[in-house]
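Q: I'm writing up a methods section and want to include an example of the input and output format. Could you take the sequence below and give the corresponding predicted structure tokens, formatted cleanly so I can copy it straight into the document?
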Amino acid sequence: MIYALLNHLWQSTLFCGCVWLITLALRGNGAGVRHGLWVAAALKFLVPFSLLFSAGALFGFATPADAGPPAFGVDMEVAAPVVSPAISLREAARDPAPVLMIALTFAWLAGALLVAARWLRAWRAAESITRAARPAPDLPADVRVTDADIEPAVARVIRPVVLLPAALPGKLAPSQLSAVIAHERAHIARRDNLFSHLQCLVESLFWFYPLVWWIGRRQVDERERACDEQVLDEGHDEAAYAEGILAVCRHSFAANQSLATASALSGDLSLRIRIILGQSRPRALGALKAAALSLATITVAAGPLAAGAVDDAARRHAAFVKNERLLDSAVIFVGPSHSSGDSELSADEHAVHVRNSTVRELVAAAYDVRPSNVSGGDDWLDSRRYEIRAESPAAFADPERLDPRVLRGVVSKLLASRFDLLISVNGTVVPNADDPR
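A: Here is the clean output for your methods example:
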């Protein structure tokens, strides 16, 4: 377990490093894009690449099969893949002592509960203040005032509202108050409280990893800058807005800043003021950067899925080669069936069983076709049912997922030796590996 965690952490760290480099390339563009990238970096901790890899394996590529067993076997032997290093490492690794694992688990659980309790306490405090808040005249319907000692903020994820301290509107000029409210409503439009709670979830689960806290600070900085940009894009005066922020800062100097909300004074205030007053507006992302960013997003999401599909196909490929080789030298037992029901194929570590099968059903299973596609022969192809068992001293690979097509060689030999028959696929006779012809 600890090795899987370490593997996940280094992958998430690498992903975060790539996000950081991208944000540097986009530092002249809108802060909203960079905030979205930092949110993705945080969410990466909740979605291990191994999960995407396993999902890709569920939809792995089909294992190819040639028409004839001998040629298929040769081709597969040449193309047999090497076992992936990750599997070798997992097989060679050993878990630490149980006592250490238990101690580490309890330490993680204690830290996670502590961080989650702080998150829950902040959320409950914000909810309590929100319920006690009241509408104010001359203010938008989603703005509430409260007697609590807080700074302007947005509360709730569902049906969010802007919270203002009751005394603040009287201390700000109309243009300043309008800009401050516009900032908070920008948080609502961007669903910043939702992203904030997701970040809290990541911090609760990975409280021991400093990188997640650093990502949280980057999110706050870019989130506030994105709202500042939106306020200015709406036409609010830069000087009035900056003065409004400073006035809020003076009024809310001792305010409660531990609420689970997006607030007006978050982020680096001095940097925000300098950007509002002195820096040019951010450039548009542009078609080239937007295309590159979309391509990177698709690659990150689809890469592990494709790798899982390829790896699963390679494993099944290798298992097919091994099982076909073992069946080629296996001891075959054939007898009449005394059971009822449908034909059944199963395998265990050292034997493959075909139960209650007709010859037609056996050929159809081995060549992956419908029984109706198997033509020729007499009525006995369907009238007689057989029990077949192939035993091998060596263990079969992945017997629970045995591919019926590995039986092609066995079926060809069986028909040739017992019934003196050959199989023809699309007009081409499938040779028997034991036949010198």
